[in-house]
């Protein structure tokens, strides 16, 4: 029995699939206007773990994840500039070029993390007709109104508005009221936004030329792919107060019933105990971690060591520890592969039972990892232990059956190139250049050690 924390009811609930052994699951994907950072990627490690646990229990999964390539405004609500258009101006490209470029990077990041990719990946720009039809449903039922800048949803007509985020509808700051005085209620949100003629991403609609609001995208795509009733909706905790609150309102009102059974959210990633931000220079990407010599799966292990629902504090010391742990884990697993000892079947059964109890208890991956480590270290070398460890890795997705990369393999090409140039400078007796290149390598987190036969490179 899988029990999951439902953000809507604030309780752990048993997963009871609506469609027999099929679990339908929607996951909020990225807005593809910039490089995804490690905080973004935690949401997909969480999604991956959930999908894997569901499958581990013998269920099938039908998943949908959106790619937001239009409609997401800079304040996450209904004001500001479309993030895609803003990025296009900054990089002197079209919004469609921006979307393609950053979508490819995001999908590559998923591969780096060995993410179990959802069965359907839907792009907002390809579902505008479905969004228009969804807005029509709301209009026909009397939930919409039109003002100067677009078509809006009237939250006062949905009695459960605020239930997910625990909003008090009577306690509203004046600042929000002043943002758009035409709105009937400060929490009313845009379903369709009118845009000026010079706006690149625009479509015809029954209400005028414009583009969809951010929130309507997920409701329309979820409905089109998964139907009018599905089991789970996931996303980052930052989506809970506005985006997912609005999704619930428009979906339930358009379709006339509760659409999603369980809402799940992963917590934030802090950096060195503080907030992550571009202005702080600590929005690290997986590519940057790789450049520093880290395996992206070490970051995945780092995340799995904390429950998805708890804030995690990223430090490079912590990542180094996870890299070392991952290497040791693969080494121990490999040692068991050729082991000839026979393990008591009851012991194996107990390990499996403990592991299953851990992952089925709201994805308790820290405890599940503890079961794995205890098993590997407590038992004599045995192929049976190897097989069970690989079975457990169906949930972790850490590629424990792969060979450990040698240290030289994990050194980035850039560092190897600098070290080679430094060696040539020494051969040329250009000591100033050699010292400069050594300092540059050190600054990037690596150390050149001279040997009688040449040199080696180590990560600091």
Structure description:
By secondary structure, the protein is α/β, with parallel strands linked by helices. It is 45% helix and 16% strand. It has 16 helices and 15 strands. The chain has helices at residues 38-56, 83-91, 95-112, 128-140, 174-179, 214-226, 240-255, 286-291, 296-304, 316-337, 345-359, 365-378, 383-396, 407-410, 413-427, 431-443, and strands spanning 3-6, 11-14, 22-27, 60-67, 120-123, 144-147, 150-153, 189-194, 210-212, 230-236, 260-266, 269-271, 312-314, 446-451, 454-459. Strands 5-4-3-10-11 form a five-stranded parallel beta sheet, sandwiched between helices. Strand 10 (230-236), helix 7 and strand 11 form a beta-alpha-beta unit. Helix 9 (296-304) crosses helix 10 (316-337). It is flat. The model is unreliable at 173-177 (pLDDT under 50).
Strand-helix topology:
Elements lengths: L2 E4 L4 E4 L7 E6 L10 H19 L3 E8 L15 H9 L3 H18 L7 E4 L4 H13 L3 E4 L2 E4 L20 H6 L9 E6 L15 E3 L1 H13 L3 E7 L3 H16 L4 E7 L2 E3 L14 H6 L4 H9 L7 E3 L1 H22 L7 H15 L5 H14 L4 H14 L10 H4 L2 H15 L3 H13 L2 E6 L2 E6 L1
Parallel strand pairs: 3-4, 3-10, 4-5, 10-11, 12-13
Antiparallel strand pairs: 1-2, 6-7, 7-8, 8-9, 14-15
Helix pairs in contact: 1-9, 2-3, 4-6, 4-7, 6-7, 9-10, 10-13, 11-12, 11-13, 12-13, 15-16
């Amino acid at each position: 029995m899988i029990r999951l924390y439902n953000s809507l009811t604030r309780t752990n609930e048993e997963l009871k699939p609506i469609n027999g052994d099929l679990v339908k699951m929607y996951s909020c994907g990225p807005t593809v206007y910039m490089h995804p950072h490690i905080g973004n990627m935690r949401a997909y490690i969480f999604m991956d773990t959930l999908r894997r646990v569901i499958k581990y229990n013998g269920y099938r999964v039908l998943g949908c994840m959106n790619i937001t390539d239009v409609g997401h405004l800079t304040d996450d609500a209904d004001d500001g500039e479309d993030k895609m258009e803003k990025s296009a101006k900054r990089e002197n490209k079209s919004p469609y070029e921006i979307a393609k470029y950053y979508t490819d990077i995001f999908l590559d990041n998923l591969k780096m993390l060995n993410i179990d990719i959802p069965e359907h990946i839907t792009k907002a720009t390809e579902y505008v007709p479905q969004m228009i039809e969804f807005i029509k449903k709301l209009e026909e039922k009397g939930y919409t109104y039109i003002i100067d800048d677009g078509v809006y949803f009237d939250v006062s007509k949905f009695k459960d508005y605020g239930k997910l985020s625990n909003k008090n509808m009577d306690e509203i700051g004046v600042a929000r009221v002043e943002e758009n005085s035409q709105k009937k209620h400060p929490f009313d949100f845009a379903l369709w936004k009118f845009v000026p003629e010079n706006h690149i991403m625009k479509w015809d609609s029954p209400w005028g030329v414009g583009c969809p609001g951010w929130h309507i995208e997920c409701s329309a795509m979820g409905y089109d792919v998964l139907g009018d009733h599905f089991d789970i909706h996931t996303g980052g905790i930052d989506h809970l107060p506005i985006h997912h609150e609005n999704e619930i309102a428009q979906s339930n009102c358009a379709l006339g019933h509760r659409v999603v059974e369980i809402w799940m959210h992963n917590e934030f990633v802090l950096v060195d105990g503080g907030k992550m931000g571009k202005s702080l220079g600590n929005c690290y990407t997986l590519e940057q971690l790789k450049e520093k010599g880290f395996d992206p799966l070490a970051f995945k292990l780092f995340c799995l060591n904390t429950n998805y629902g708890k804030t995690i504090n990223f430090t490079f010391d912590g990542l180094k520890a996870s890299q070392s742990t991952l290497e040791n884990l693969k080494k121990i697993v490999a040692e068991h592969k050729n082991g000839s000892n026979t393990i008591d079947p009851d012991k194996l059964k107990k390990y499996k039972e403990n592991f299953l109890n851990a992952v089925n208890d709201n994805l308790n991956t820290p405890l599940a990892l503890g079961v794995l480590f205890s098993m590997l270290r407590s038992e004599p070398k045995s192929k049976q232990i190897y097989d069970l460890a690989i079975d457990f890795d169906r949930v972790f997705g850490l590629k424990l059956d792969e060979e450990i990369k040698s240290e030289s393999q994990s050194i980035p090409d850039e560092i190897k190139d600098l070290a080679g140039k430094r060696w040539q400078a020494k051969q040329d007796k250009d000591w100033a250049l050699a010292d400069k290149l050594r300092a540059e390598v050190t600054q990037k987190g690596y150390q050149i050690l001279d040997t009688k036969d040449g040199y080696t490179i180590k990560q600091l």
